[in-house]
Amino acid sequence: MTISLALSRLRRPIAAAVHPRAAELAETTLSWLAGHGLGGADPGLVDFTARTLPDALPERAELVARYTCWAALLRAELLAAPAGSAEILDRVVRFGHVLDAPEAPVPGGDPFALALSDLLRRGRRMASPLQLRRFTEAVRSWWLGLAAERAGEERGWRPGLAEWTVLRPQCGGAAAMSAKVELALGPEVPEWELNGPVARAAVEAAWTVALADLDLHACQRAQEPALNLVSALRADDPALSVVEAFEAAVDVRDRALALFLRLRSQLLPLSGPAMRRYLTGVGRAVAGTTEWRFGPAPGGPSIQDTVEANLQPLAVPTVSWWWDQLDSGARVPGPRGPFG
Q1: Closest CA relative to residue 206, chosen from 176, 174, 231, 228
Q2: Which of 51, 121, 271, 301 has the fewest CB within 10 Å, making it most exposed?
Q3: Mean pLDDT of the chain, nearest integer
């Protein structure tokens, strides 16, 4: 099997969509970035927002598109920092003050910090305090992930699959994507619904799919950084060729997708309106990531695909607990439960 053939067999059972104001989002986002002295953003990143959050409320879609482009530019700058991980940590600690007090003056006039301050002040006008707290905590987690990624490169690391499942979501901003989905759709999801074990397993599996797709695309383009799913599988088994590791990565991705769909189907009948909307939005984000990287599915989404999906657990201790949540009753704890 070739890489192209493996890609053509990706399971894609969720219909993708594009935000109806995609063109306007691109114009306003690039203009906002330029106004903060942050040029050079890839317009495709706005398209990413339009495809991953097609149901976002208009004003919130604009906010999230701006953050996504800002984050991509910041990532590129931080990972290229001459002083390495130490410089990244120094920088993001200073940014942390902006997260806590966006109305405070920004010392030194750092354009990234000023833009972040603007984003947060706008966010306060439309998001709930809990949504903003979730977002800022997710951004901090992502910053630490970037520092860890650069530190790993400095010491020549080659993480295996178990490490990839832990590090890649943090370095790739999976928690921030969760926060963006909730913020973009509007309703605040109750803490006791969002943090139940079944919900956590479902959402973590979903972002594993999205991150795997990004890694597969990078590998297809002959870009194979250390923190990449294909690289991780080859680190575990050096005898694998790139094509064999690519096929194995597709299998990991498809198993995570099958699990997400099954766990979501367990949760939806038991969830409140905000959680149902959120879970649907997570699925849309996964489908949008796939289409953003690989184009429309040949022949469109296949419902039959979900029936034949492989629900065999991955033999990886860091994520094997996800499969323990299958048909475990999926009962969502009420407000007097462990998070109430």
Answers
A1: 174
A2: 121
A3: 91
Distance from C-alpha of 126 to C-alpha of 63, rounded to nearest angstrom: 10
Confidence of residue 300 (pLDDT cuts 50, 70, 90): low
Rounded to the nearest 10°, the torsion over CA 75, 121, 273, 263 is 20
Cα separation, 176 vs 67, in Å, equals 10
Answer whether residue 326 shows pLDDT above 60. Answer: yes
Owner of token pair 């002040």: 121
What is the rounded radius of gyration, in angstroms, for the C-alpha atoms of the chain?
A: 20
pTM of the model: 0.92
Question: Range with the lowest mean pLDDT among 39-43, 88-92, 133-137?
Answer: 39-43
Buried b (16+ CB within 10 A) or exposed e, 60-73: bbbbbbbbbbbbbb
Domains of the chain: 19-157 (1.10.600.10), 158-332 (1.10.600.10)
Backbone dihedral region for residue 84 (phi beyond 0: left; psi -120 to 50: alpha; all else: beta)? left
247-259 exposure pattern, b = at least 16 Cβ within 10 A, e = fewer: bbbbebbbbbbbb
The pLDDT of residue 299: 66
Alpha helices (H) along 9-106: 22-35, 44-52, 58-79, 85-100
Q: Which residue has the tokens 């994520």?
A: 319
